[in-house]
Design brief:
The chain is mainly α. It has one domain. 62% of the residues lie in helices and 0% in strands. It has four helices and no strands. The protein has helices spanning 13-30, 37-60, 73-76, 81-97. Helix 1 runs antiparallel to helix 2 (37-60) and helix 2 (37-60) runs parallel beside helix 4. The longest helix is centred in the middle third of the chain and has 24 residues, at 37-60.
């Protein structure tokens, strides 16, 4: 069995691909006219979690974060303002909860 350096954090490429697929699916849910505002708000919370998880996986791999507070507007510009507000709030909550700095 191969031992790993404790300072080296393995990053699974499949996890990153899965996160991207999940984010794309959740983005579609936010603009789905068949969903209620409550369902879209729930999807926005899950989207915020996955965006932060992807950022964390990419930073562990040494790459630049794909999502920041500056470019979040691109992801919420076509959705209901109430849902967008929840998404921005949840993004901040999950960013703090998943922070590597505690």
């Amino acid at each position: 069995m191969e031992t790993q350096n404790p300072n080296e954090q393995p990053c699974n490429e499949n996890l990153i691909k899965t996160e991207w697929a999940t984010i794309k699916q959740l983005e579609k849910m936010l603009v789905n006219p068949e969903l209620t505002v409550k369902e879209k708000t729930g999807a926005a919370n899950v989207l915020a979690f996955h965006v932060n998880t992807l950022n964390r996986l990419l930073s562990q791999r040494g790459e630049k974060e794909q999502f920041s507070e500056q470019n979040l507007g691109d992801y919420v510009k076509n959705i209901d303002p109430r849902v967008a507000r929840h998404f921005r709030r949840d993004y901040g909550v999950w960013k703090k909860a998943l922070s590597l700095k505690k």
